[in-house]
Amino acid sequence: MQKLALITGAKGGIGSAITKQLVKDGIKIIATYSKGQRETAQAWFDEAGFTSTQVILFEMDITDSQHCREQLFAITEQYGVIDILINNAGITRDCAFKKMSAEQWHQVINTNLNSLFNVTQPLFAAMCEKGGGRIINISSVNGLKGQFGQTNYSAAKAGMIGFSKALALEGARSGVTVNVVAPGYTATPMVQAIRQEVLDNIVESIPLKRLATPEEIATAVSYLAGEGGAYITGETLSLNGGLYMH
């Protein structure tokens, strides 16, 4: 039977690569997009060459718990229990902490961390009742090592790791695994838009002397979502070229 995956932030650089990889793996995808983003989501869908049998676009405000609950109920009623959940959506609002506004803090925490509850909680019980499921949360190297100007982002991404470890313990008896993929600097449009001299310094600081490709991140997600990852839970898989070893 074909597996069903839900991916938040599916049209971003890493999210798009994950979506394409899981489609290649034969998994049907529900790709969520934010309110007011229907046109850009459809443009992404068309450009990637997806079909409606491969990817379904679905609007969802991941910062609104009630909205998520209603939308996820509608999804499961129409398509069935989600087999694989990938919490990938995230934003940055970088600023030195002494100048950071409450809005910059809350925007990042709500989108990157509180969304884990909003999206995962309505799906988790059904996964447990079904007797299996995969939850994969996309964190960051900066959630492990910290980063100047990213107290909000680093706090959210570190919180994601703690969330995953605790939930892995709850899901294990029902065959639900929960893991984290923590990418380092990745060659997404956002990263490649950084000023060249700054990007050169970043690459120089990475022992492997290059950025990750989005496809490398997607391959790691594919492994954890597939049969080979069935005995892995509560783990954080780092893909950072040696930038941070722990």
In short:
With 246 residues, the protein is α/β, with parallel strands linked by helices. It is built from nine helices and seven strands; from the N terminus they run βαβαβαβαβααβαααβ. α1 (13-24) crosses α9 (214-225), α3 (65-79) packs parallel to α4 and α4 runs parallel beside α6 (151-171).
Question: Please, could you describe this protein's structure?
Answer:
The protein is α/β, with parallel strands linked by helices. The protein has a single domain (4-239), classed as Rossmann fold, CATH 3.40.50.720. Helices cover 48% and strands 15% of the residues. It has 9 helices and 7 strands; from the N terminus they run βαβαβαβαβααβαααβ. It has helices at residues 13-24, 38-48, 65-79, 102-130, 141-145, 151-171, 189-192, 196-205, 214-225, and strands at 4-7, 28-33, 55-59, 84-87, 133-138, 176-183, 236-239. It has a 7-stranded parallel beta sheet with strand order 3-2-1-4-5-6-7, sandwiched between helices. Helix 2 links the parallel strand 2 (28-33) and strand 3 (55-59). Helix 1 crosses helix 9 and helix 4 runs parallel beside helix 6. The longest helix is centred in the middle third of the chain and has 29 residues, at 102-130. The radius of gyration is 17 Å and the shape is globular. The mean pLDDT is 96.
**Named CATH topology:** Rossmann fold
The major sheet is characterized as: 7 strands, parallel
Succession of helices and strands:
EHEHEHEHEHHEHHHE
**In what order do the strands lie side by side in the largest sheet?**
3-2-1-4-5-6-7
Radius of gyration: 17 Å
* CATH architecture descriptor: 3-Layer(aba) Sandwich
Ranges with pLDDT <50 over ≥5 residues?
none
Mean pLDDT: 96
- Strand tally is 7
Shape: globular
